[in-house]
Each structure stands twice: as structure tokens, then as C-alpha cells.
Design a protein that fits this description.
Blueprint: E1 12-13, E2 19-20, E3 23-31, E4 34-41, E5 46-47, E6 50-51, E7 56-63, E8 65-68, E9 73-76, E10 81-84, E11 91-94, E12 100-106, E13 113-114
Antiparallel strand pairs: 1-3, 2-5, 3-4, 4-12, 6-13, 7-10, 7-12, 8-9, 8-11
Length: 117
């Protein structure tokens, strides 16, 4: 067993190609086939439309967010959980003008692919 403690001072900016706006990431679990990371989106920041090689679970921990596919969008708030099947195009982030944080849980990654610039 391994216990990971959340240490807010270890949140680091992520300016990778996936994100639009100010985003900070805090890896929590990187063991075996599973990865869990806390992601904080500031002032409407979000991901580009993308897919993952494994299923993804999002657990909204604070703020007001939005998740969507090419055809649907949902508002999300703390306590909401989102299941995204492998290879489903999707985005997630803060609602316009709001902040939002979530925990992202991924299985074995077959490759992140951005499907919209």
C-alpha cells in the first residue's frame, strides 16, 4: 500500500499543448497501471478536444466546470463524477470566468491524442 498526501505547494503550471489557459497539475499516484493527478483550471481554462488510450474518470473537487464531447456539454460541480470511455473525443475545464479543479484517474495510457487545435 502507498498513501499519497496532497501538498498544494507542489502544484506546478502545465503549459503543454493540451491546455488552453492557466492550468496547474499535481501528480498524486503514478503506480503500476494507474495514474491519478489533481488538475486546477483558472478563469475558464480548459483542455483542447482530445482522446486517451484508456478510460478516464474525473471527480470534480472544487469550482464550476464544463465537460463535453463534440455533440454534448455538461456543467459540473464539486462531487460530480465523469466517466469517459477510451478513445472518446472530449474536453474538460473551468466554466467561462470560473475556476475548477478535478482529480483525473487514468488506466494504462495508450496515447493522448489532441483532435482539435
Amino acid at each position: 500500500m502507498k498513501v499519497s498526501k496532497t501538498d498544494p505547494s507542489k502544484r506546478a503550471p502545465d503549459e503543454g499543448a493540451l491546455f488552453l489557459g492557466e492550468v496547474k497539475r499535481l501528480p498524486l499516484v503514478q503506480e503500476g497501471a494507474h495514474r491519478m493527478v489533481e488538475v486546477t483550471f483558472k478563469n475558464g481554462a480548459k483542455t483542447k478536444m482530445h482522446t486517451h488510450g484508456s478510460d478516464q474518470l474525473l471527480i470534480i473537487s472544487s469550482g464550476n466546470g464544463i465537460v463535453g464531447t463534440p455533440s454534448d456539454k455538461w456543467d459540473v460541480v464539486p462531487g460530480d463524477a465523469v466517466y469517459i470511455p477510451a478513445q472518446e473525443p472530449h474536453f474538460h475545464g473551468a466554466a467561462p470566468g470560473k475556476d475548477m479543479a478535478h482529480y483525473s484517474i487514468l488506466g494504462p495510457e495508450g496515447g493522448l491524442k489532441i483532435v482539435e487545435s
